Amino acid sequence: MLPEYELAKELFSQYDLDVSRETYQKLADYAAFLVEYNEKVNLTAITDGDGILKKHFLDSLLLPVKCVRYFPAGARVLDIGSGAGFPGVPLALLRPDLDITLLDSLNKRIVFLHQLCDRLGLHYDAIHGRAEELARDDDFRGRFDVVTARAVAALPVLAEYSLPFVKKGGFWISMKGPNEEGNSMKHALAVLGGTSREEIRYSLPGGDERVLFVVEKAGNTPTKYPRNSGQIKSKPL
What we know:
This protein is α/β, with parallel strands linked by helices. The chain has helices spanning 5-13, 21-38, 49-66, 88-94, 107-120, 131-134, 155-162, 186-192, 229-234, and strands at residues 76-80, 99-104, 125-128, 144-150, 166-176, 194-203, 209-217. It has 9 helices and 7 strands.
């Protein structure tokens, strides 16, 4: 259902993205399984091949291209709110050297991600849980080189969910549309030990704008954070 490889390769080359034919075949298998599974479990509103290629796959694959300096070889990566696997699964396809964990609060999505992992022959962990609870577990708190999140929540809220997982000197990268401003999380970063590094802006085919907000974990997150989800949502930092 995806466009032919040569057409996709031409598209990818416009973004300095090199995807092998073998990797593209796995993306095609991913797309077919996603659409099939979506008939019984709602995972995505985008079900046409062109839309999946550009708005899911290309968008996800651009993360390690635009932010390559933040993904050293062998980095431990956590993707919060993975949903149908974006950006974590395409990241695992493009960078098999990374140690990737996918986290989602809905078990039906985790079941899909486990089946997808087996189908594509990938190596990643998929965990059912809530970020604000898992971030208090010593096996996860401050253990990741990179934490990613695609949309999920407003920046100040997402900062509290994400930064407790990041080790000092590591990075949190939030994938957003154009309507949020980095200044909105200024107070949250000061409280949680984060420092804004850069905002990377680009557009997908068709003109959809994207922003990658890159935050470095410069200090320790106080033990009181993250709060419970009710507090985080009702009184964002």
